[in-house]
Amino acid sequence: MKATAIVAALLLALLASACIEDGGGPSGPTTPGGPVSTAADGPGRTATPEASTPICAADSTQRFLEAQSAASFRVYCPTFLPAGFALEEVHFEETVQPGTPAPGPGSVVATFKRDSPAASVQFIQGRPALSVITDVRTSSEGPPGDTDYDGFEGSLFDEGVLARSPDGFTHVISSDAVTTDDLEQIAAGMQAVAP
User: Fold this and answer.
1) Which of 40, 42, 92, 149 could form a disulfide with 154 if both were Cys (CB 3.0 to 4.6 A apart)?
2) CB 127 within 8 A of CB 169
3) Residue stretches of the chain with pLDDT short of 70
């Protein structure tokens, strides 16, 4: 298993290297499989996976590494998604929260979609809007369950997961047409993309 992860990381590094040599580096807006745009750094940067970098679901490892290079907090990626999900986007948003100095820590937002049967999963990490948290909290009629989330606990709701990482940042997984069993597996498979 460890050898497979190392081979995958090396292949991603070679692919990233080939893209830079071929096109002069990533640029332009966020597109599936394309670069991440950040307000602070302009067009996205290429980050090289290390041996300890997890293999993120739906071939999204490189995109999460790019988001990590823009974020001031530890970024996590899903290592499990139900069959058929594809990456739609990953981007970093610089946001100013009331009562905090500008520009604030911002958020990393990642969206995955499946066409058949139609479903979506969105991950927001950092300082998400209160409305995003409220939507997940109110998706269950009863109390939330507990679920693992890379070594810390999350709360499992009918349409999402809420967690707070040890560094004090909020993690939201919101979903549409995804079972709570799958949500629990998604949360349990979350891993930090950098040590």
Assistant:
1) 149
2) yes
3) 1-49, 96-103
